[in-house]
Design a protein that fits this description.
166 residues, Phospholipid/glycerol acyltransferase domain-containing protein, 1-acylglycerol-3-phosphate O-acyltransferase activity, acyltransferase, Plipid/glycerol_acylTrfase
Length: 166
């Protein structure tokens, strides 16, 4: 198996396999650098940020599923990276692995690709079976997984909509 950081397969898809020992809370160097940079420069994007309940965030080693509204592209995961005390392994659409620079960042930050039906049709279901195995490995190893149930970024006026059910 390859490491959790993943790689691009010959067909351009993202590799979702991970070793169990890499699935938990061990922070990658790139993730640490991203966190440091955003903590130091986050005020450029947001004059103030408020984080409530961080003291209640599950301790390292406790399986954690962090669900969040996804109102604004990369800003949402970056804010969560800044605010949370643990490494969050985000689920993201697999097409991001193919974007120059962003793909490298995502691949090396421990993210897990999600295959959407709109891009992969009927193959999405089969490809996501491996994704679910990876997700289970991350949680069994006590990792923290970030997941946006809506599955897409939305801009105003949708940003204040409640989570969808289902």
């Amino acid at each position: 198996m390859s490491s959790l950081r993943g790689s691009a397969a010959s067909d351009g898809s993202a590799d979702v396999s991970c070793r169990t020992e890499d699935a938990g809370d061990s922070t990658t160097l790139l993730y640490s650098v991203i966190r440091l940079i955003f903590r130091a420069t986050g005020f450029v994007f947001y004059a103030t940020t408020e984080c409530h309940g961080v003291e209640d965030f599950p301790a390292a080693g406790e399986p954690t599923l962090l669900c969040f509204n996804h109102g604004n592209g990369l800003a949402d995961p970056l804010c969560l990276i800044k605010a949370t005390p643990r490494m969050v392994r985000f689920c993201a659409k697999d097409t991001l692995w193919k974007v120059p620079i962003m793909g490298t960042l995502i691949r090396n930050s421990g993210a897990v690709p999600i295959y959407r039906q709109r891009e992969h049709g009927d193959q999405a279901k089969d490809r996501n079976l491996e994704v679910f195995r990876t997700v289970i490995e991350v949680l069994r190893a006590g990792g923290c997984l970030g997941f946006a149930p809506e599955g897409v970024s939305r801009f105003l006026p949708y940003m204040e909509q409640p989570f969808k059910t289902g």
